[in-house]
Protein: Exodeoxyribonuclease 7 large subunit
Amino acid sequence: MRKPLSVKQFNEYIKSNIKHDPIFQRINLIGELCNIRINNYHLYFSLKEGNDLIDVVIYYYEDKEINFDFSPGKEVIIKGNLSFNNYSSKLVIIVNEVEDVGISKEFLEFLKMKEEFKSKGYFDKENKKPIPKLVKKIGLITSKDGAAIMDFLAMINSKANDIHIYLDPVKVQGDDAEVLIANAIRTLDNLSLDVIVITRGGGSNEDLSSFNKRKIIEAVFAAKTPIISAIGHNIDTTLIDYTSDLSLQTPTEVGSYLISDYVDYEKKIINKFDKAESLIKNTIVMTELKLKVLDAKIKKSSPAKLTEDKINALSSLNQEINKAIKNVFSYNENKFKNLAIKLDYVEKLIDVRKQHFEIKFDEKNVYSSHSLTEGDQIELIFVDGKLKARIING
Structure:
């Protein structure tokens, strides 16, 4: 039994055989350009024929004498050597020369079909069906094993949890993908769904070539249900992007688009609840205030309150009258006391004055009226002074 080779030994064996085989060192191929990209001054692309591909690289292509633009659909002849990459286990042709042959037959057929669909109105805006808001039923056409389905469902379930997904799993590339995708579109179109999403997780232009096929484009255009395409590439590079009612790039983006109305709706509902709550609180406060005012008016206008107010008023008036009477009696009593004091003083004064009163005539005291005649000059002597007087009638 032979000893097993290690992975490194096996890769080195393949690389060595390719390197020393003259067939692989003088390669001369013709094919259609696709999957063109530039990275670190190197030009990477693929040559294709139908569904067959081979990877190609031109190192430091700007230093090479290449006098035409690389664009998808062109047919070229390349000359170079085959190389094997140990790390990726891929075969790649390292190109030394490139010759422009012209546009390939396959690409010309694509352009012809594109022009045909355009002339029939497949790409016209007026034929686009509007995408409904707040979708509840979504048809999903994608591979059951790809990342696209997980990305799409993760985004949908991040917000809306009452959306129903109707999955029709299909192959999204390969010879039978065209028929499978077209049949899935017709099947889901009969389920009265809100929208149908056709998606995949990206890939090269050749991986996406199924979405340029006639049966798929015709099924999309004929569908009554709005269709969104999101096949993981730059927009408008396949015919399905022109034909679908809305074209987005990734499964995540289309999922986000479909739940955006739910996010806006949720914000509006929360805003309305906040306004309603504020209105209810204000209404309660105003109602309580009105009830307090009304209660005060009722208490103020009630018979019991009026009677109580009258009684209180009469009681206050009675107290004021009694107080006034007391004040009058007290005032008069004090006044009488003062008058009595003054009268007593006057009486005493009179008694004193009686005791100290004299009448003199010719400097002699007069004690009887018979001692005086008419015309006599007399002197009246009081306690506090003297007066002179004349007898008028005696």
Notes: The chain has nine helices and 14 strands. The domain at 7-103 is CATH 2.40.50.140 (OB fold (Dihydrolipoamide Acetyltransferase, E2P)). The first helix runs from residue 7 to 20.
